[in-house]
Design goal:
- The protein is of the alpha+beta class.
- About 40% of the residues lie in helices and about 20% in strands.
- Strands 1, 2, 3, 4, 5 and 6 form a 6-stranded antiparallel beta sheet that branches.
- A hairpin with a 2-residue loop joins β8 and β9.
- α8 (about 230-250) packs antiparallel against α10 (about 290-315).
- The protein is globular.
- The N and C termini lie far apart (about 70 Å).
- The relative contact order is 0.14.
C-alpha cells in the first residue's frame, strides 16, 4: 500500500479579484489561501472576520502569515465548485427552473440580517462607520477624483456635443420625462453626503452574490464592521438588479470562469438602451430586464428585510433620502463611466438621473411591487 502524501497539495490559483486564491488540500482539511498584496487590507479583513464570526456564519480563519510583499490568510474552504456554492449560482437558475431553493435561501439570509441589524443598530458618527465603499471614494483623492477630475465625458458618438457638463443647462429626457441633472453639482454633493450620522449595524459591508455562500455563509471581510444600513441596502439591491447579472460579468468575465452559467444569463439581465439628441437635449429610452431568479431575490430582500428596517429606522419617506447618496455612489463610483461603452454609460446615466430626481422612488427605480417596498 502506498503511503498517503504527507505534504499539502496546492491547486491552481483562482482569480476572482486582484487577490489570488489558492486551494490547498491536506490529509485532514480543505483550505483556501488568500494572498493579499496590501497589508492594511489584510489587517482589516482579519479584524472584520473576528467581528463577524460572533454574528454570522463564516468559514474558520486558520492561519495568518505575513511575508515580504504579501499577507496570506488561510481559511476553511467551503464547497464552492463549478456553478455551485454561491448565491450567484442560485440566481443563475433559468426562468423555467425551480426557484424554491433560492426562496428558502433568501428567507434565511434576510432573517439573519434582520436579527443582527436589530441587535446591533445604532445612530453612528461617520468616523465609526466603514468608509471604503462610500465615504473614502468621495474624499479628495478618492475614486470620484480619480475617475472624473479631468473628464468631461461625451454622451454621443460625436465628440463635439452633448457632454456631461452640458446637462446642467439642458437636462435630459429619460423615457419621455425631462430630468434636471447637474453633473458637477452631483459630484460636489456626494463629497459631503457621507459626513453626517447614520443608522449603522454590524455587517460584512459588501453583500454581493459572490460574497454570499451556499449553504449560507458570508465571505470577504475587508469592509466588515459597522456599516451604514442604507449603504448595505443600496449595495445588495443595485448589485442584484444591475451589476451582478450584466455589467460585472460583461466587463470582468475572468472572475466568473468557475461559474459559466453566469454568461448564459447575461442576455436575460441586459437592459435595452437607445438615445438621440434633439434640439440640443439628449433623449434616452431604456427598458430594464431581469431574470425571474434575480427579481425574486430582490423582491424577497425588500419585503422581508428592507420593509421592517424602514419602518423602524427610516419612517415615512426617510429611506428614499437615506438611500440616495449610497445608490448614486454605486452607480458612478464602481466603474469609471469614461471606460464604458456608450450604451453602458448612458444606462448608468439614466439611473443616476432617476436617483437624483426630487421624487426618487425605490419602488419605481427597482421595479418593485408596492408590497415589497415601504416607500412611495
Amino acid at each position: 500500500m502506498r503511503p498517503s502524501n504527507p505534504f499539502p497539495r496546492i491547486g491552481a490559483p483562482l482569480k476572482f479579484s486582484r487577490n489570488r486564491l489558492y486551494p490547498i488540500d491536506t490529509r485532514r482539511r480543505r483550505l483556501i489561501a488568500k494572498c493579499m498584496t496590501d497589508h492594511n487590507e489584510a489587517r482589516a479583513e482579519v479584524l472584520g472576520h473576528q467581528l463577524l464570526r460572533d454574528w454570522y456564519p463564516v468559514p474558520t480563519l486558520h492561519h495568518r502569515v505575513r511575508i515580504p510583499g504579501r499577507t496570506v490568510l488561510i481559511y476553511e474552504r467551503l464547497p464552492v465548485d463549478t456553478d455551485r456554492g454561491l448565491l450567484l449560482d442560485l440566481l443563475n437558475t433559468t426562468d423555467d427552473g425551480d426557484h424554491s431553493t433560492l426562496d428558502a435561501y433568501m428567507r434565511r439570509m434576510t432573517s439573519t440580517y434582520l436579527h443582527v441589524f436589530t441587535e446591533t443598530a445604532e445612530l453612528s458618527p461617520p468616523s465609526t462607520v466603514v468608509g471604503k465603499l462610500y465615504r473614502d471614494r468621495a474624499l479628495p483623492g478618492g475614486r470620484l477624483d480619480h475617475y472624473y477630475a479631468h473628464n468631461d465625458i461625451p454622451l454621443t458618438q460625436a465628440q463635439d456635443r452633448p457632454r456631461l457638463s452640458d446637462l446642467a443647462r439642458t437636462g435630459l429626457y429619460v423615457n419621455g420625462r425631462h430630468h434636471q441633472l447637474d453633473w458637477d453639482g452631483t459630484l460636489s454633493w456626494l463629497r459631503g453626503a457621507f459626513d453626517t450620522p447614520v443608522w449603522s449595524a454590524i455587517s460584512q459591508g459588501d453583500p454581493t452574490d459572490v460574497n454570499l455562500a451556499v449553504p449560507l455563509a458570508w465571505l470577504d471581510y475587508d469592509t466588515a464592521g459597522r456599516n451604514a444600513i442604507a449603504g448595505e441596502i443600496a449595495n445588495f439591491s443595485f448589485y442584484t438588479a444591475v451589476l451582478g447579472g450584466w455589467l460585472v460579468p460583461t466587463l470582468n468575465p475572468q472572475a466568473f470562469i468557475q461559474h459559466p452559467a453566469t454568461f448564459d444569463q447575461i442576455p436575460a439581465n441586459t437592459p435595452r438602451v437607445s438615445a438621440h439628441p434633439h434640439a440640443g437635449t439628449l433623449h434616452i429610452r431604456f427598458t430594464d430586464r431581469l431574470s425571474q431568479a434575480r427579481r425574486l431575490a430582490l423582491s424577497r430582500y425588500w419585503a422581508l428585510l428592507v420593509s421592517p428596517l424602514a419602518a423602524r429606522y427610516f419612517p415615512g419617506g426617510a429611506l428614499s433620502e437615506a438611500l440616495r447618496p449610497y445608490l448614486a455612489m454605486r452607480i458612478i463610483g464602481v466603474f469609471d463611466l469614461v471606460r464604458l461603452s456608450l450604451e453602458q454609460r448612458l444606462y448608468l446615466l439614466t439611473k443616476l438621473a432617476l436617483c437624483m430626481a426630487p421624487d426618487f422612488s425605490p419602488t419605481r427605480f427597482f421595479d418593485l411591487t408596492e408590497s415589497s417596498c415601504p416607500t412611495r
